[in-house]
Each structure stands twice: as structure tokens, then as C-alpha cells.
Design brief:
The complex is a heterodimer of chains A (14) and B (257).
Chain A lengths: L2 E2 L10
Chain B lengths: L1 E5 L2 H11 L5 E7 L2 E7 L5 E8 L5 E4 L3 E6 H9 L6 E6 L5 E9 L4 E9 L17 E6 H12 L4 E7 L2 E7 L4 E6 L3 H5 L4 E4 L3 E6 H7 L8 E6 L5 E7 L2 E7 L2 E2 L2
Antiparallel strand pairs in B: 1-5, 1-7, 2-3, 2-6, 3-4, 4-18, 7-8, 8-9, 10-14, 10-16, 11-12, 11-15, 12-13, 16-17, 17-18
Helix pairs in contact in B: 1-2, 3-5
Chain lengths: 14, 257
């Protein structure tokens, strides 16, 4: 089964 | 202060419909370029970004950058009081504590002007920096087709694997009791008529939660076309463009399948 990734892993703070 | 006059309230109604289930409160960032909203859902899986260009309004004035903290449930209620074809004016003062909405309708027997006010709030939301990405695959298709595909597959399973290859774009759902897959081939005739297009630098396979995609496809009422931008291991970008602006969604992929 797969786990849901988080956007925080991809998008940082500006 | 902000004063923004839209020729039809329907645009705001549709935008709220396309956002309100992902996000409950959001800042409408108003400046001279227009109105922008960027917010992530509570689970940090999806992000929605809306832009309304100043030029998309009948009249637009915003003297200085103004964040309007809006409870989207309350705004949805106030917008329900507007008819789709009412002219809708948004106003807020520099203290940004009240948003006023005026709906103007001309009917056969009289002019109606309705005025509503709603409270604004302070929202302390961290803005995420979205990096510019060169995507490996870009697929444009009718938004109604995308809506149909994700809605159908969501009946079978909770996630969808999207594969873009030379063959076309394939949507696969493996449910416990049933599975399904839908292939959309690049069709010379269709692309000639500009119904859709598939551009690919390298093959892409990604898996996403269908409930979010079903949610995003509420934007089908805003645009006849949707663009899907994908690279392996990065969030999907689902983009709907319309005359006055755009709505974009980012969705984190499932990992380790």
C-alpha cells in the first residue's frame, strides 16, 4: 500500500 | 480600500464552490494587480491557488495591498443571496474588518440593489513558495471528460494511477472488488480541432487520491478545458483558465506504491 505524500516535502517557505 | 465590480456574481459562486471543501478560511490578497488566494488543506496534501486579474473586473480599485481574511462558509452563504447574473461589487476599507457585497439586478419591472456585509477575520496562514517546475508531461483535455473519469474511477477505488506514455494518458484504479482503466489516445483529428493535446518529454507515472481530484473537478463549471502538468515524484498541477483569471490546484502524489 502507498502512503500519501505531503506538499510540505515539495514546497518550501518563500 | 478595495472596490471591485464583477459583471456576474456567478464567477464568484463557482470559485467558492471549487475551493470551499478544501479550505475553510483563507486570505484574499488584494493589490493593484487583482485578487489572489492561496491556501492549503488541513492535511497538507492539496493546495489551491486562485487569481482574478484586475482587468477581469468591470471596475477595479485597490490602493494598497490588503489581505481580506474570509471564512469561506460565510462567503458562500452571502453569495447564495446573489443571482448568477447579478452585477456584484466587493468593497472593503483599509482596516479590512468588514467585506461588503452589493448585488445589482435589472429586471423587467424594477432595479434591485441588495447590500450584504460580512465580518472578516485575521488569518495567520503560512504561504508556501511554489517552485517553478519544468514538467515532463502536459495534458490538456475537456474539463467535462476529466470530471467524468475521476468521478467514475472514484466509485471503484480510492486512488488513481496516472500514466503518460507515447500511447497517451491512462487512468487506472484498482479497487478491492473491481478495477478500471481509461486510456485517452492522442488523436490527430481531435488535436486538429484543439479538443486536447498530450505533450511529453519523458514517461510519467504517478498515483493520487481520487477524492481530491473529484474535488478539483468542481472547477469544470469555470472552464471548458483543464490542463494536467506532471513529473515523476512531484505534485500534480491541475489548472483551469478562464477569461478573468485562473484556478490551480497542486496535489501531492502517493509514495512507495
Amino acid at each position: 500500500p502507498s502512503a500519501q505524500g505531503s506538499l510540505k516535502d515539495f514546497f518550501g517557505k518563500p | 480600500m478595495l472596490e471591485a465590480k464583477l459583471s456576474e456574481a456567478a464567477l464568484l459562486k463557482r470559485l467558492l464552490d471549487a475551493v470551499k471543501e478544501l479550505v475553510s478560511d483563507a486570505n484574499f490578497e488584494c493589490n493593484e494587480e487583482g485578487i489572489q488566494l492561496q491556501a492549503m488543506d488541513n492535511s497538507h496534501v492539496a493546495l489551491v491557488s486562485v487569481k482574478l486579474y484586475a482587468s477581469g473586473f468591470k471596475r477595479y480599485r485597490c490602493d494598497r495591498p490588503l489581505p481580506l481574511g474570509v471564512n469561506l462558509g460565510s462567503l458562500t452563504k452571502v453569495l447564495k443571496c446573489a443571482k448568477d447574473d447579478d452585477i456584484c461589487t466587493l468593497k472593503a476599507g483599509d482596516d479590512a474588518d468588514i467585506l461588503s457585497l452589493t448585488y445589482e439586478a435589472k429586471s423587467a419591472y424594477a432595479d434591485r440593489i441588495a447590500e450584504y456585509e460580512m465580518k472578516l477575520m485575521d488569518i495567520d496562514a503560512d504561504q508556501l513558495g511554489i517552485p517553478d517546475t519544468d514538467y515532463d508531461a502536459s495534458v490538456t483535455m475537456p474539463s467535462s471528460e476529466f470530471l467524468r473519469i475521476v468521478r467514475d474511477l472514484s466509485l471503484l477505488g480510492e486512488s488513481v494511477r496516472i500514466e503518460v506514455s507515447k500511447e497517451g494518458i491512462r487512468f487506472v484504479s484498482d479497487g478491492e472488488a473491481a478495477n478500471g482503466n481509461i486510456l485517452i489516445k492522442q488523436n490527430a483529428e481531435a488535436s486538429g480541432k484543439k479538443k486536447g493535446s498530450i505533450e511529453m518529454n519523458s514517461a510519467v507515472t504517478l498515483t493520487f487520491s481520487l477524492k481530491y481530484l473529484v474535488n478539483f473537478s468542481k472547477s469544470s463549471s469555470l472552464s471548458k478545458k483543464v490542463q494536467l502538468m506532471m513529473s515523476n515524484d512531484v505534485p500534480l498541477l491541475v489548472s483551469y483558465a478562464f477569461n478573468q483569471g485562473h484556478i490551480r490546484y497542486y496535489l501531492a502524489p502517493k509514495i512507495g506504491d
